[in-house]
Amino acid sequence: RLTDEAVRAAPSVKAAIAAFVETRVTYFQQHSDYFRLYVTEISRMVSDRGPRKGVCRNALESHTRVLQQVIAGAVQAGEARAVDPAATAMAIFDITRGLVARRFTTSARSDAARDIEFLTDLIWAGLRPGPEGHTA
After folding, report:
1. pLDDT tens, per residue, the chain with 136 residues
2. Which terminus of the chain faces fewer neighbouring Cβ atoms within 10 Å, N or C?
3. What one-character DSSP code corresponds to residue 98?
4. How far apart are CA 123 and CA 92, in angstroms?
């Protein structure tokens, strides 16, 4: 819910990406046990063949739905290059999860705000339209 609210309130697609990353990093840092459970369930989704796969997939899709909508709108408006919004939202989800995992698994403690800004800039560099508004 917090992620959806932050993404919807963002004034631009880049700000929406930053809001998605920041909300998730901040929340998971504050709830590290939940993050560990979350990662375990996603791993099970990949390996299980039973009914849980559908439940986990629905949860995963709901976490990226609002970001996917923002990206689709940005592509339509020419504010982002032509990309598959669903695949892009899932990639942002995955790279954000990777950032949180790295922050938990490495001994070097980096500044969260700097990590969030770096990741947002990295993602935006791949999405922004090319020169003269071309959308690659």
Report:
1. 888 899 999 999 999 999 999 999 999 888 888 888 878 877 777 676 655 555 566 667 777 899 999 999 999 999 999 999 999 999 999 999 899 888 888 766 778 899 999 999 999 999 998 765 444 4
2. N
3. H
4. 7
Give ∠ CA 118-124-128 in degrees, rounded to 5: 155
How big is the CA angle at 63 (ends 33 and 126), to the nearest 5 degrees?
A: 105
Please give the backbone phi and psi of residue 134, each rounded to the nearest 5 degrees, phi first.
-65, 145
Q: How far apart are CA 32 and CA 10, in angstroms?
A: 26
Token pair recorded at residue 1:
């819910």
Q: How far apart are CA 73 and CA 76, in angstroms?
A: 5
User: Do 122 and 17 form a contact (C-beta atoms < 8 A)?
Assistant: no
Both tokens of 99, joined, read: 């950032």
pTM for the full model? 0.82
Residue 49, CB-side half-sphere exposure with 13 Å CA sphere = 0
Residue type, 13: V
Token pair recorded at residue 12: 């631009």
